[in-house]
Amino acid sequence: MIASLRVNWVILRTCLEERLVYRADFAMGTLFRFLPIITQIFLWGAIFAVGTSNPRAPIEGYRYQDMVVYYLLAMLARAFSSMPGLASGIARDVRDGTIKKYLTQPIDMLGYLFWHRVAHKLVYYAVAAGPFALVFWIYRGYFPGWPDAFTMTAFLLSLVFAFLLGFLIEALIGLISFWFLEVSSLLFIYMMINYFLSGHMLPLDLLPDSVVSVIMYLPFKYLAYTPPAILLGRYETHAELARELLIELTWIVGLVIANRIAFARGVRRYGAFGG
Question: Which residues cross the membrane (predicted)?
Fold first, then answer.
């Protein structure tokens, strides 16, 4: 147990050092990702002004202020759940044979990739904390106020769960490369579905009830919709909120099992192609 913890710490520290090598480029890329926030806020302002007979009247229970808060929190959730390059990186390692290093050394590939992503997110949060704080401070009057301790704890848990779900889903897509060497098309389809069904594009409440009834049983909504919905009070009771987190945890456990099965079976059929 102690040896395993030591290995994980070494992996995390090494990955942090790797990320900090190109810290200037990483910081610039992170800061420029905040530009769409401004355009999205202006877009929703135009929608509320033009799309209703009474400017700034609520749309499906969302006021303009609520929509701004929702989008800010959805961006925060996406900062946790997005895993750029994870699936394509696994597919590339399988395709060019680099994955052999995980098979010949006493390092679990999924464990290594997990801690690599943790390091990536830690550096990202360190860089993005300032811009996030500034934007949240500017729109602080739009927030409904501090929630109770249970709701705040559930919100923080939903962010951690979003990170785990995002990692597990993309890792599973990457592991499909054991059977299909090129997964770029599948990854593109996933990204399009994810953008729409996760609530990143717009709150899921605005979709037709027939669509929402299906989406609510899929894992995508936990990647962007659930965290802001928690703070905006879309879950009326603590029991309902606890049930949502339990369902999300069930998805996480199921995806962990699916990843382990896919990796074990993929390794058995792996031909070790490449250099």
Answer: 31-50, 70-91, 122-143, 149-169, 176-198, 210-233, 245-263
